[in-house]
Write a structure and sequence with these properties.
This protein is an alpha/beta fold and 346 residues long. The chain contains eleven helices and 14 strands. The chain has a single domain, classed as Ribokinase (UDP-N-acetylmuramoyl-L-alanine:D-glutamate ligase). The strands form two sheets. Strands 6-5-1-9-10-11-12-13-14 form a nine-stranded mixed sheet, sandwiched between helices. Strands 2, 3, 4, 7 and 8 form a five-stranded mixed sheet that branches. The longest helix is centred in the middle third of the chain and has 15 residues. The radius of gyration is 19 Å and the shape is globular.
Length: 346
């Protein structure tokens, strides 16, 4: 497995999360699927990818090559795993820390998209991604830090691997002085609280359903309930900064001092699948640039607006040029350090 970037980087990003493929179905009606309902849907000619692949694809495309981007995870020793590995290597990701397991299949998911662009997915809970161990991620952090002791470092803990493994990653990163970023899905809320994922995070990025699940509050659809949800998340997350996305309703952020609403960017929405992961990637790119949370969120919203214009969960046409052009078209003023970072990635 390749290590195209080499070592000696000024910034290192290490993360874990799900790796796999899947199918996407387009539903004909906006009514939420019922518990016992059987509904016909159209199989889209697009691929569904998993959390680690989506986020790290955008990171590699939008960050300069002197930033080392290292995904840590497991795939199956099967055709799907080989396909994912090839795509990640093709974009320039360091795949040296991805392990192929002979006794577990590559993670597979079935996503569905409603006509209004919302959607969800069902994923295999016993795939290779569920076998990623704490030792695996801790070793990655310690070895990358040893190779780049003076580098600025970040660790990303993404869903679809065990919560205990993600907590181990964040703790190892904190031990070496790296920044920590985490997200989770709604079904993990109980485990997230039990394992203490949020207090180990410097930045938490979730959508409103996920924030509602962990706080016990209903998903927000107005400013008052959005504030209540973020306040509840603050109680659990301690000193972490927060970004809670709400699709077309924009995102709410807490930077430790102020709670701000960030409107969504105009977009031709084909599918919202993968938009939250694209937002998280944009947020981290802004963070690597040293931007404030507000400025990083402006970039994240741009990246997400481009991501939803693809039927698949990765818009392979998004790169620095497209983000800079979208900023110009929308009148978004990118913080100079962010703009410089994007130009360096061209």
């Amino acid at each position: 497995m390749s290590d195209p970037a080499g070592r000696g980087a000024g910034t290192v990003v290490v993360g874990t999360g799900g790796l796999g493929t899947g199918v996407i179905f387009a539903l004909a009606r906006n009514e939420t699927l019922g518990r016992e309902e059987s509904r016909a849907a159209r199989l889209l000619p697009a691929e569904d990818f998993c959390k680690l692949h989506i986020v790290f694809h955008y990171l590699r495309r939008l960050l300069p090559r002197d930033v080392l981007v290292v995904p840590v995870g497991c795939i199956g020793a099967d055709a799907s795993g080989s396909h994912v590995l090839e795509l990640m290597a093709d974009v320039g990701l360091d795949t040296s820390r991805l392990e192929a397991l002979p006794d577990r299949p590559t993670l597979f998911s079935a996503s569905f998209v409603y006509p209004d662009g919302d959607g969800g997915n069902i994923s295999d809970s016993e795939s290779a991604s569920s076998a990623v161990t704490p030792d695996q991620v801790v070793r990655a952090v310690r070895e990358e830090h040893a190779r780049n002791p003076d580098a600025q470092g970040f660790a990303l803990a993404l869903p679809e691997v065990p919560v205990a493994t993600r907590v181990a990653l964040l703790r190892a990163a904190r031990e070496v002085g790296w920044g920590t970023v985490a997200s989770f899905v709604a079904g993990e809320a109980e485990a997230v609280v039990a394992h203490g994922l949020l207090p180990e995070s410097d930045l938490v990025v979730v959508n409103r359903e996920e924030a509602a699940a962990v706080t016990g509050l209903p998903p927000w659809h107005d400013p008052a309930s959005a504030r209540a949800t973020v306040e509840g998340l603050r109680t659990l997350a301690g000193t972490a900064t927060l970004a809670v996305t709400g699709g077309s309703d924009g995102a709410w952020t807490w930077d430790g001092e102020a709670l701000l609403h960030n409107p969504s960017m105009p977009a031709h929405v084909v599918s919202t699948a993968g938009a939250g992961d694209a937002f998280a990637a944009g947020l981290l790119v802004g963070t690597v640039a040293g931007a404030s949370l507000a400025d990083a969120t402006a970039l994240a919203s741009l990246v997400a607006s481009l991501a939803v214009e693809s039927a698949g969960t990765i818009n392979f046409g998004v790169g620095p040029e497209q983000v800079l052009s979208a900023a110009t078209r929308s009148g978004t003023r990118l913080q100079p350090a962010i703009a410089d970072l994007l130009r360096a990635a061209q």
